[in-house]
Amino acid sequence: MSPDSGAAPGLRLRSWTGTPYRFDPGALALELLPTGGPGPFARYEVLHEPADLVGWARDCRLRPTPVLTVARREVLAARRLRDALWQLALARVAGEDLPAAGLAALNAAAAHRPLVPALAADGSRTFGEPATGRQLLATVARDAVELFAGPHAHRIRVCSAEDCSLVYVDTSRPGRRRWCAMEHCGNLHKARALRARRTTAATADAATADAGPRAGAGADPEPGAEGA
């Protein structure tokens, strides 16, 4: 992941081919999910050291970027919170009850003191320093509480691509978002659909050609052949 230099929020991810694309999950809490997760998502783990959590804070939508002091135990706490968010998000997508273990982990993280906003001498917004990893996680957890209890909770979705598991919340007015990113899975779907249509058309053309008139079929009999 890397920060998106544009004004729009979102993470800068890379596809399996190495192509960069912007993914906006729509909420701070959901930006933690691409760092790894439980079960099959463990192979994507990127939170190993305190510097990794600091890097995620730099890349996410939190602005301004907080100045953090992160302990190793807070990295483990971040992974526990992230795994709980996976459980809760997938349960919401499936229309199931929110799991008790996930709720307990989320609420425990949210109970801590969050990042404290402050006004700098130049009139800009900042965060009180020094800030800890625990405060960062409390801020993420409180964002998740607002997300799961908010008006868009029913719009938490998994990307429609069969080979993509990225989770987002659709906050658009029409509510018709299907893809993690149109420039990634959306475009891949369009390309595959186009190839499928061309293949179908080519197959149909070949079948029509095979079924066409063969040499001599329907031709008039040779002179003298009739009554021979």
Automatic annotation (TrEMBL):
InterPro entries referenced in this protein's UniProt entry, alphabetically: ABATE, ABATE_dom_sf, Znf_CGNR
Disordered as annotated region, ranges: 197-228
Boundaries of every Zinc finger CGNR domain copy: 155-198
Pfam family, one: ABATE
Gene3D superfamilies per record: Jann2411-like domain (1.10.3300.10)
SUPFAM superfamilies hit by this protein: Jann2411-like (SSF160904)
Low complexity biased stretches: 199-228
Name of this protein: ABATE domain-containing protein
